[in-house]
TrEMBL record, chains A, B:
SUPFAM superfamilies: Winged helix' DNA-binding domain. InterPro entries: HTH_MarR-typ (IPR000835), MarR/SlyA-like (IPR039422), WH-like_DNA-bd_sf (IPR036388), WH_DNA-bd_sf (IPR036390). GO terms for biological process: response to stress. This is MarR family transcriptional regulator. It comes from Nocardioides agri. PANTHER family: HTH-TYPE TRANSCRIPTIONAL REPRESSOR YETL (PTHR33164:SF43), TRANSCRIPTIONAL REGULATOR, MARR FAMILY (PTHR33164). Pfam families: MarR_2 (PF12802). Residues 14-147 form the HTH marR-type domain. It comes from the Bacteria. GO terms for molecular function: DNA-binding transcription factor activity.
Length: 154, 154
DNA sequence: GCACATAGTCCGAAGTTCGGACTAATGTGA
DNA sequence: TCACATTAGTCCGAACTTCGGACTATGTGC
């Protein structure tokens, strides 16, 4: 299966940029999830994806919903699980009594601390493969692309 | 939410490469799905992701399962839906009587034909934003990265 | 030809998603 | 200052999805 049917750019060319982006993304995600599982944290994908979006100072549910492009209820239920597993806590938002901030607990912080070296190692492996200069170019291009593709830039 | 908690490369730096890859990927996916919905094809994400992996000459279930990193049963059920909606058909694999090939029907081909210009337009928008040269570098870097990150290269 | 691997399906329990309807707190403007 | 619209989040529950286990049919190697 070299060419995809659905979204290949054209018959003769290789994969479209979308899938080309997805492949390494998925690899990074898998590496992190595997490392977490190894450390005894069995985080399902949906929980990981929401967790990842929590800002260090805490995030509101609606923010998380927007960032992960899921309805509030869905994110609510995912946060319930994260909370039950002790990774996050909901605290009242001091600036708005309707809202609550989803914050990372010390146990949740463990997840971050396990992930970080894996992310760094994966990036290092990529850098070793691509070379320093191209890695910088890649990151720059992606950061630039974010300007026109991120529906949720604060 | 500027920095993500889970996987930021380091406190001062911007997003990690993983999320940086994901953002444009998701944008592309959304653009395609929106266009399909507009044309009356309400394809859920999971179906779209599997459909996208079907090779023009047809793919086996096990291949699709491996490529999308889902169990056979899950992919089987997704293919059931695609089949019920008339986008794909299962035909016997002439080379192996146990296997069947999931192939794209004319109606499924419509999906491809709707997606293609959207993919091209999105890529063109990105090119306009990044410039010709950086786009080429981006694609090259990603294609290279695929060599070490694609668990399923034929 | 017999054992073993492989393709795919069926079953069903457990889990996930998310529309709609709701409560509570905020902001707004007359 | 009070109605009124808006926004944060939750509760409910039906429909759907996921996927382990067990199964059949075919291929493959000894």
């Amino acid at each position: 299966m070299c060419k995809t049917a659905g979204v290949s750019t054209d018959d003769a060319s290789p994969l479209n940029l979308g899938l080309l982006l997805f492949i390494p993304y998925r690899a990074m995600e898998t590496a992190v999830l595997d490392a977490l599982a190894e450390a005894g944290h069995d985080l399902p994908l949906n929980q990981a994806r929401v967790f990842q979006r929590i800002a260090p100072e805490g995030s509101r549910l609606a923010q998380l919903a927007q960032a992960s492009q899921l309805p509030k209820q869905t994110v609510g239920s995912i946060v319930d699980h994260l909370e039950r597993s002790g990774y996050v806590r909901r605290i009242p938002d001091p600036t708005d009594a309707r809202a609550r901030l989803v914050t990372i607990t010390p146990r949740g912080q463990e997840l971050v601390e396990i992930s970080l070296p894996v992310v760094r190692a994966t990036e290092a492996a990529w850098r070793a493969h691509l070379g320093e200069q191209r890695t910088v170019l890649l990151r720059d291009a992606l950061a630039d692309l974010r300007e026109i593709t991120d529906p949720f830039r604060p």
